[in-house]
Amino acid sequence: MDFIMEEKNRKQIRKTGRKPKIDPAVNRYSINLNAQDNAKFLALFDQSEMKVIAHFITACIFQKTVKTVKIDMDAIEYHEKLTRFFSQFRAIGTNYNQIVKILYRNFSEKKAGTYLFKLEKETIELVKVTKKVIRLTQEFEEKHLKKE
User: CB under 8 Å to 53, separation ≥6 — which residues?
Assistant: First the structure.
């Protein structure tokens, strides 16, 4: 008989649903914001990229640090294109070495020298373009990638 009573007690203890919290948040506060303050609040909330407004408010009240990460898609796009440019620049350097070897192997020294002179002029132009890219990148970083 005791065995049947214990079985019934065990079945009654089991409950479905979420386990109750040890320290539930039951205290609630209400604030009213005008349209301008609400816009500022929502902007700050969006910058924080937190998912829950209540967590954001709690972090602000208790002065917990709220990390803000801003992703600048223009900077990412610029970086991708710059990376592609420099990979092309490396490929040009590899091709340059191969061309010099081929010129001396297949042409007379005079003819190879003439072609190398033309190649040297184009290389000087490439150096100018590269310096301009470096200068523009530095300007871009100064204007748009301000580290705070």
Answer: 45
Quick one: which of 41, 50, 82, 55 has its CA closest to 69?
50
Kindly give the residue spans of alpha helices, DSSP state H, lying in 1-148. Answer: 2-13, 35-48, 53-61, 73-106, 109-144
* Cβ(119)–Cβ(47) below 8 Å: no
Q: Minimum mean pLDDT among 39-53, 69-83, 102-116: which range?
A: 69-83
One-letter amino acid of 143? K
Rounded to an integer, what distance in angstroms lies between the CA atom of residue 18 and that of residue 25? 15
Residue listed under structure tokens 């072609």: 115
Give which of 59, 21, 57 is closest to 42, Cα–Cα: 57
